[in-house]
Amino acid sequence: MPLPGHLLPILVLLLAGSPGWAWVPNHCRIPSQAMCNFVCDCGDCLDEAQCGYHGASPALGTPFTCDFELDPCGWRDISTSGYSWLRDRAGAALEGPGPRSDHTLGTDLGWYMAVGTHRGKETATAALRSPTLREAAPSCKLRLWYHTASGDVAELRLELTHGAETLTLWQSTGPWGPGWQELAVTAGRIQGDFRVTFSATRNATHRGTVALDDLEFWDCGLPTPQASCPLGHHHCQNKACVELQQLCDGEDNCGDLSDEDPRTCGQHTATDFETDLGLWSRSEGWARNHSAGSPDHPAWPCRDHSRNSAQGSFLVSVAEPGNLAALSSPELQASGASSCSLVFYYYLHGSEAGCLQLFLQTLGSSTPQAPVLLRRRRGELGTTWVRDRVDIQSAHPFQILLAGQTGPGGVVGLDDLILSEHCRPVLEVSTPQPLPPGPRVPVLGSLPPSSRLQDFCQQGHLACGDLCVPPEQLCDFEQQCAGGEDEQACGTTDFESPEAGGWEDASVGRLQWQRLSAQESQGAGAAATGHFLSLQRAWEQLGTEARVLTPMLGPSGPSCELHLAYHLQSQPREVSCNFERDTCSWYPGHLSDAHWRRVESHGPEHDHTTGQGYFMLLDPTDPLARGHSAHLLSRPQVPAVSTECLSFWYYLYGPQIGTLRLAMRREGEDTHLWSRSGTHGNRWHQAWATLSHQPGSQAPYQLLFEGLRDGYHGTMALDDVAVRPGPCWAPDYCSFEDSDCGFSPGGQSLWRRQANASGHTAWGPPADHTTETAQGHYMVVDTSPDALPWGQTASLTSKEHRPLAQSACLTFWYHGSLLSPGALQVHLEEGRRHQVLSLSAHEGLAWQLGSVEVQAEQAWRVVFEAVGTGVAHSYVALDDLLLQDGPCPQPGSCDFESGLCGWSHRAWPGLGGYSWDWGGGAAPSRYLQPPVDHTLGTEAGHFAFFETGVLGPGGRAAWLRSEPLPATPASCLRFWYHMGFPEHFYKGELRVLLRSAQGQLAVWGTGGHRRHQWLEAQVEVASAKEFQIVFEATLGSQPALGPIGLDDVEYLAGQHCQQPAPSLGDTATPVSVPAVVGGALLFLMLLVLLGLGGRRWLQKRRSCPFQSNTEATAPGFDNILFNAASVTSDP
């Protein structure tokens, strides 16, 4: 039973107020603890909408993002002074110290959060706080972009409040560089609710201008429950799935701590340094400490890893820079054939010279063994705890040595050392033993591993012969030692030596670089010997990038070059894309403030793939763009074959839509492949373009879609781009603007593609048919006797067209010279050639429309043949070939079910650049249009229409023009029109014009309010010259919102209009224009005489005033100019 409307608000309040449950607007009822937890529990992700995320459920690996373009995403200012945050954009202020553009769009129309210039003299802090967030995963990271300048603020700080504790994730007092700066911090595992606060502090000497944009939470959601887990995964108690390597690693990956359950991890030996060092022994260089109350050191960890708290403890190196801090394990033995694994977390921050090394010291052998380096990490890794793991297989007892060395201003930290169940302490060793006196931990620094320092050189110097080379002269491209020892292991290598030229892996993500042999590699090429660096899976949990570094080099000169050989085993990102998950290899250009954007289907804007998915959209009003064009480019691609076919679906809709172009860019040069101009109706269209490459060429290329706008009324869209090997079928439409569309001239190649832009072409029409300008292109053949003797033919053959499921109409426009140009014959080839049309190329100034019906169950071609007549300076030209389903319409007639037929909606110069459109009631439209057509009387039908609301005052108009029609003494134009305007306003006007060489004549017009239904009109047409019929939509005096529709236009050549059958509506008999004018004048004179006579009669009778309680209605010419037509309503 449906719920009464008055009870719905009460139910909403009850659900919102019920403990433990939350209600979101899409009727998705979820537990309150599932709100704002970085997991889309509702299908449209509305449960995360109040937490800084807008959109559908993100694909795997995409962040929860707030770009402030729509609203503050739940972030709010909590400042206590006038120095505060607000949502702002650069375009709101013409000058000032703030950013000139936002970070998201890169324009002055984009939005961000900002703190304006503060006029106070006291110290003040502006704080911006996030909404309440819940349950962050161990891998949770926060990235943001901030904008300030040195001298603007005293301090920037990012804090996380969890319960009663506030952690400082990042703080800086500068200096800061110009422009937008990126900040990335790790939040780590957080149970329960938390908030993030970004604050800026200023004092009397600072202006205080700061901006914040593009906040992103990466990998923060916990895994969701699953019915079953994939192979190699562990099923948690809460039904989530985690990888086996995440068990017993000191992190709550399941979300309920079941992956760290003592029943599973009881045999592991974990040391978290909360109370002591456990089984580990240390040298003087390490100290157990915690962040709370720690020395004021900017590089010091703000929290430990075990508890993610400032109260937690960890080890930190307190040795002087250049000195070692060593930590050793007890004597261990790997059990059986299994590996002993050590998981540990380290912290390297504040100095590029900081370094942590892990050695294996083998014990119990007859000869002392030098420590073996298993892992080295150095440099600046940020303010985060990084996970690593080593697996040890040894037949002898061993110790693990961790050696840290700090650089100036830096710190090295350790936490959570976890030995696996296969690491068995040697039984007779009950207490940690000191290291054997023989082996010595190598001296760390920037020296190559093979270097051995002599006693007379200072620590960190290299001894070669009688020289001690200081560190700053190592790897400086200047040889100091006679044997070149100071320039060894400085980056130059073929990776055959184990030192690998000094290259070291510096990855902290899920990938790492390793030196491998060809035998160890899988699928790395045909090489069977040798070594190289290879990308392998790593144990770290942060990020996806992998880094490998040389030792510190330099200085270098301006001509320094790096040469390397690389092999990419995976394929490049695909050009083929349906844009459902991301943009694949496509990205927007940034040469203009107009940009292509990946958007979700919404209202009248829907994708082609599913009708509810994603597509690429160019809307010059969102945001308002000043640039004339926008580019969408593919990543560089290497040709797979010499010929490829690119197919895609495009959408061009609106009265000022402009042009969409496709080009191929190779070595900086663009080759135009395809283009469409003007509105193509409220629907998706498919197009194809053949990509041709040199055989065997590996030269990369890019594909480029360019949208060129004519105004702001209209949108362009792209979807379902696909590339396949081989050529495309012949296109359904060819304008010859970008190419010859695969047409091949036969024989002497007399046909050619040309334009008359210079005005000096030897032959051909002065303008093409597509653009109606001298810059437009067409195909033309010289039929003069010198080029084509009398009776001979010149052929132009298309590529193969795809087989047809039903009959189709092939239309084309042709043009002949004033002198006899000869004949134009049309042939179809489907196994054999047969002639389907023969035309005498028309003598005149206008392009003529030709058409043939095509039925082909197999692949077919069309062949145009020009026949020479022996007349000098003659030619035949072709333009605008179009293949459409259905039979060919009669000249000047159209039911608009398949398109506009031979009617042209191209914007006419001087009328404002507006176009009629084509559409139907079934598809949602951003423009007003009739709800049904006249042909079918349903939403499935189609019609031509124009929305007058886009016009401004002043008489601007839009034309819909027929093909050129032959002169006629009397013909009838019959059509149905629809004018859907509201009451009591002066509305748009619809007129019928005749255009010929003699000028322009208005023969019919109507305006004012009409009923919201289809009305029939008939117009007598006569012209002594070839002419065009023009439907003109315009305004009378003021803007008005409302559509004007046309349907079922029928031109009856040589026939008079017949009087329609009587109906309840108004009727009129067709008459000539003079008769209409004369009748109207006579009628007005009679009214004047009757009025005067009636007044005199009333005066004589001195009767009462005239009274009437009915209102007479009669047909008339109100708001109809030269209406030589009959009008009936649609029954």
UniProtKB/TrEMBL annotation:
<feature type="domain" description="MAM">
    <location>
        <begin position="892"/>
        <end position="1059"/>
    </location>
</feature>
<dbReference type="InterPro" id="IPR013320">
    <property type="entry name" value="ConA-like_dom_sf"/>
</dbReference>
<dbReference type="InterPro" id="IPR002172">
    <property type="entry name" value="LDrepeatLR_classA_rpt"/>
</dbReference>
<feature type="domain" description="MAM">
    <location>
        <begin position="491"/>
        <end position="560"/>
    </location>
</feature>
<keyword id="KW-0812">Transmembrane</keyword>
<feature type="disulfide bond">
    <location>
        <begin position="229"/>
        <end position="241"/>
    </location>
</feature>
<dbReference type="InterPro" id="IPR051560">
    <property type="entry name" value="MAM_domain-containing"/>
</dbReference>
<dbReference type="Pfam" id="PF00629">
    <property type="entry name" value="MAM"/>
</dbReference>
<dbReference type="Pfam" id="PF00057">
    <property type="entry name" value="Ldl_recept_a"/>
</dbReference>
<feature type="domain" description="MAM">
    <location>
        <begin position="575"/>
        <end position="730"/>
    </location>
</feature>
<dbReference type="InterPro" id="IPR036055">
    <property type="entry name" value="LDL_receptor-like_sf"/>
</dbReference>
<keyword id="KW-1133">Transmembrane helix</keyword>
<dbReference type="GO" id="GO:0016020">
    <property type="term" value="C:membrane"/>
</dbReference>
<feature type="disulfide bond">
    <location>
        <begin position="475"/>
        <end position="490"/>
    </location>
</feature>
<dbReference type="InterPro" id="IPR023415">
    <property type="entry name" value="LDLR_class-A_CS"/>
</dbReference>
<feature type="domain" description="MAM">
    <location>
        <begin position="269"/>
        <end position="425"/>
    </location>
</feature>
<protein>
    <submittedName>
        <fullName>MAM domain containing 4</fullName>
    </submittedName>
</protein>
<keyword id="KW-0732">Signal</keyword>
<feature type="domain" description="MAM">
    <location>
        <begin position="64"/>
        <end position="222"/>
    </location>
</feature>
<dbReference type="InterPro" id="IPR000998">
    <property type="entry name" value="MAM_dom"/>
</dbReference>
<feature type="domain" description="MAM">
    <location>
        <begin position="732"/>
        <end position="890"/>
    </location>
</feature>
<keyword id="KW-0472">Membrane</keyword>
<keyword id="KW-1015">Disulfide bond</keyword>
<feature type="transmembrane region" description="Helical">
    <location>
        <begin position="1071"/>
        <end position="1092"/>
    </location>
</feature>
<feature type="disulfide bond">
    <location>
        <begin position="236"/>
        <end position="254"/>
    </location>
</feature>
<feature type="signal peptide">
    <location>
        <begin position="1"/>
        <end position="22"/>
    </location>
</feature>
